[in-house]
Each structure stands twice: as structure tokens, then as C-alpha cells.
Amino acid sequence: MRRISRSGFAYRVMALCALALTSTCLTSSGAAAVEGLNPDQQRAFDIYKELIEINTVTATGDTLKAAEAMAARLRAGGFPEADVRVLSPAPRKGNLVARLRGTGARKPILLLAHIDVVPAAPEDWSTDPFKLVEQDGYFYARGSGDDKYMAASFVANLIRYRQEGYKPERDIIVALETDEEILDRDGRGIQFLLKNHRDLIDAEFALNEGGGVGLKDGKPVRNSVQTSEKVSVSYALTVKNKGGHSSVPVRDNAIYRLAAGLGRLAAFSFPIRLTDTTRAYFERTAQMEGGQFADDVRAALSGPSDPAAVPVMRLTANPFFNAQLRTTCVATMLEGGSAINALPQLASAKVNCRVIPGEPIDGVKATLERVLADEQIAVTQLDSPVLSAPSVLSDEVIGPIAKLSAEFWPGAVVLPTMSTGATDGSYLRNAGIPTYGHSGLAGDIAESRAHGRDERILVKSFLQGGEYLYRLVKAYAGGQ
Predict the structure, then answer these.
(1) E strands within 33-104?
(2) Range of the domain at 41
(3) For residue 57, what are the β-bridge partners?
(4) Which residues contact 404 (CB under 8 A, 6 or more apart)?
(5) Are residues 151 and 269 part of one domain?
(6) For labeling, which of 23, 147, 205, 452 is most exposed (least CB within 10 Å)?
(7) Could you tell me if 147 and 115 lie in one domain?
């Protein structure tokens, strides 16, 4: 384990790079034979490293510094001041919008990535979360995948386009935004751009985070295109009580009442609800997997399902599949009592729900109240959910993806997906800009470290994904 220098990275990539479609990585016989990074790869790595090592934790970091650093890279790459804008709505908060101008024959494409990250406690990590570290073929760092890989790739590729003299038929816009990790609740990121600078980011459609390439035992099996997102909404559950001295316990204990209600919630499952996207996802996955999995999927998709039926229970025992099939509500925070020798006067919990698109939000609160089954547990909605309709997968969008995916990841099935999380794509969709989560970043389908300890991505996937995005955006933009 070590921090990465430019020369050290180039040397170690010699052993790692079996990367298809990169001329410096393959001989005519197909054997790996690299002499180092080519200039485009080196630029992408340098930008990635610089961006990673700027602390941009949403609450305490500095996204303005990161936006200015990326703006400096673009200006040094030949972009005029007028086409590189750093927009700061508050101290330490920055957004970058850059534009490669085309002929104007077609409406622009928007490449969106957020540059803020969630917190990372150094004592919890095996590496320094705010230094780019290469180990065992992986890049480790907070934001290595979520979402600085895409931000760095977009910036590096925009410079590459300009230096090649590429003239697209449509403008290519890169927007790096702040505060995505808190769903832009203060209006300083994507909402600020849409409200105050819509002209700078208006586009026919957008590419956003999400929708990666799934590897199984190192083999690519799927390439996802995220067309929709679950809706995030949170609730506070509160029990109040008169309390008293702990030496004289009573049955009406606020902590016990809340705990009993949470136990009932833990045992409850929302009904299965399919969307066009999730139905297509499961149908294609079943065709790919076959066997008992396919039988279980057919049972779940055949109509109203008994949640206790064995095939359904087998399918929903997988947390990812379960989250794709239904609304979920989970307790995430808990507190209660004020002293060790006093009966609690207050016990409270926070519950985060991820709602299937199209399902009424009011119905979620009503379901919580029914399941908790205790009128003393008050349920209060904490936030205003951002609803958005799915983006339609047109031939113009899916065609280039299918073609390039077959070149980069032969045999991988292109799948429409619904994100169980939330991104700023919802704001763009509501503003009339269809948005697709599609990263070209390959990773093991059994591993997800985003927001967690030792976040990481494969080194070869960083290189391959950057090249894939370079070619995909060109396919969308046309021109010469």
C-alpha cells in the first residue's frame, strides 16, 4: 500500500493493463505489453488525483476549491475564459460549467457529475481516505467512484476533444456540482444552476452517475442504464412520556413503546410494485441467469404475489433485488432518555424510506402509522421528496451504448435500471432534461463500497471507463 506518484502509477499499470481498445496496452497477438501511460491517460490520472486529494466533504470540505482547480485544468488545456465558469453561491461551495462549442446543428449534451463526497473517518479506513492510494489493482479514496471518477473523466476528455481539434455537431457541456450528497437541500448545487444559469446547462439530454458495468468472477455480465430513481423521504418517530424515577418502573415506557413499534416495522414488507424499468431489468436478468433464479423472477412478475411464497422470499432475500421490487423503510437513527436513573420522557427514531416511482407519498406515512400500530408513536415527515418521471430510453440514447458495450464488454447485457438511491438527475428530469445514469465503470456486482469504508475502484476500470465515455460522448455529439 502506498500513495501514488505519477511515475509509480505508470510503472504499475504495466502489470495491470490488459485494457481492450487502448492501443498502448495491446500487441497484435493480444498479450499485455505497455510501456507506460499514454498522454491522455496520464492527463486523466493527474486530474483524478488532484480532485481526489481536495477534501470536498459536503458539510466541511471545499467544493469551490475543487471547481477552481478543474477550471484551471481546462483553461490550461486551451479553453477560453468565457467557456469555463466557476459559480459559487456560498463560501466553500462551487459549481463548474464548461463548454466545448460545436457547430450548433443539434442541441447540446450535458455531462453531469458531483464533486462533493460523504464523510470518511480516517481511523475507520485502512488507507488515508483523502489521498489517492493504489493497492492490489484498486484505487482507494473517498469519492474514488462516487463521483470523482466521472468528474475527472469528463474534464480530461473535454480537454482531449479540444486538443484534437474535434468539432462536434452539438455543444458538449460539463457541469460539476456541489451538495448532491445532501440532495441539494440548500439549493446551492444543481437547483442553483437550473434557477440562475439554466442557459449554461440546457441540453437535449444528460449523462449522470449510476448505471455501471457489473462483473461476475471478473467477467462483464451487464452494462446498466439508469432511467429512474426511487424517491427518498424521511420520517421522525416520536414517543413522549411523563417519565419518573427509574427506581419505580412503569409499563408505559417511551423506549419500550418505540422499540416495539420498530420491531413491527422491521417485520413488515411493502407489496411488490413493478415499473416498466424494473420489469425489463428482471426479465432480461432472468434470461441471462436462467435456472431457479429465472423461475423465481417469473413467479414474482406473474401478477399479485404472496410475499410468503417461497420463490418470492428467495428473490427478496437478496437486499438489492428486494430494493428493486418494493418501497423500503428502514430505521437509521435512534435516541432516547436523558439520565441513567430517570425513566425516559422522550424516545425518537429516524426512518428513511425509498419509494417506488409513482407510489403516492402520503400512502407511505399512512402505512407507517398502520404498521407501528401505536397512537402514541407520532410520525412526522421531515423533508419534501423530489418526484420525477422516468427518462425514456430512445434509440438515439441506447443505440450507441449497445454498440460500444459490445466492443468494450463482449457478452454483457445492456440493462435499464432503477436506482435505489437518489441523485440530482431528478431535478434535471423535472426541468425537462432527460437524464441517464451511465458511467462505464466496471466493478464486481457483489461489492459496493460507495459511502462506506475503503471506497475503491479497479485501476483498469478507471482507464477503460474513461476511454468508453470519451467514445460514447463522441458518438452522441457527432461531427469531426
Answers:
(1) 84-90, 93-100
(2) 2-210+423-477
(3) 117
(4) 468, 471, 472, 475
(5) no
(6) 23
(7) yes
